[in-house]
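Here is one such tokenized protein:
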Amino acid sequence: MTDARAQSPGPSPHEDAFAKGEWHAEFALQAALEAWNYNPSHEELYGLAQGVTYGLRDGLVATARQRLYYVSQRRNDSRVLGLTAGLRGRIFRRGQLSGFLQFDLGISDAAVAAPPGGTRFNYLALGGGGFIWQINRHVGAIATLEVIHISNAGIAGPDRNPDIEAIGPSLGLLIGF
């Protein structure tokens, strides 16, 4: 009697969130606390992220996401809508579990200046790592830990350039299509 697992042909592309040519929709919840502070306020971010990923080659995907954050800060709280694009690269795979590193760059617009003393328009830079657990052929669970940097890069002058550096987890789903 032979072991059926030894005879299996290996994972199909649909079972791999990092397969070349594969599309996935991504939905996640995120929370982050300010990690270090260069402004007079303290911020907390709570958000939703939705986007798509596309496999550029085995182990490397491009990401495009919309991010909506509620920013709890001194004075008036704000809502930030951001658009980001980036790359996610697998660093290991063990069965259904893949570990990865990722980064995203983008722009955002806030309802109220975020952080206080800043501007409504800001740049976004995010980086971190995480894991994807492939639940079945089309669905995977994703967990990340990211550093989030929100800054206007001094476009309104050096006295209007406070920024937010926050770190926090996100949990979500990847759905292949």
Notes: Residues 14-176 form a domain with the Porin fold (CATH 2.40.160.20). The chain has one helix and eight strands. Confidence is low (pLDDT under 50) at residues 1-10.
